[in-house]
Amino acid sequence: VQLVESGGALVQPGGSLRLSCEASGFNFPGHIMTWLRKPPGRESQWVATLNWKGNLPEYRDSVQGRFTISRDNVKNVLYLQMDNLKIEDTGLYYCERGRGTGGLRGRGTQVTVSS
Q1: To 5 degrees, how large is the angle CA 96–CA 102–CA 107?
Q2: Are 46 and 54 in contact (CB under 8 A)?
Q3: Measured torsion, CA atoms of residues 99, 101, 106, 108, in degrees rounded to the nearest 10
Q4: 37-85 pLDDT per residue, tens
Q5: Are 33 and 49 in contact (CB under 8 A)?
Q6: What's the gap between Cα 79 and its chain centre?
């Protein structure tokens, strides 16, 4: 049972990245999934949550309109498309099974936004 994130990188402000979270060992389609991030020196922040069907996304105010959470329930993958990235989006991004209240989570992938 695990979640493995990928896709993080160093990117300039205004750039885009697509993060992936591959799930294995459990019934991925049956679970709400969440992206969180941990900015350097700060507590973890909720970023976005998506229901099992993929039609009811919820976003943190600061990423609304720039980030898109989606999922492929055949491939068992959760995605986070991040556009118009800002320096304050820098952090370790990880996915979690559930609503971000402490469920199964991956090790994360680092996103650094810098000029």
Answers
A1: 45
A2: no
A3: 90
A4: 999 999 999 999 999 999 999 999 999 999 999 999 999 999 999 999 9
A5: yes
A6: 7
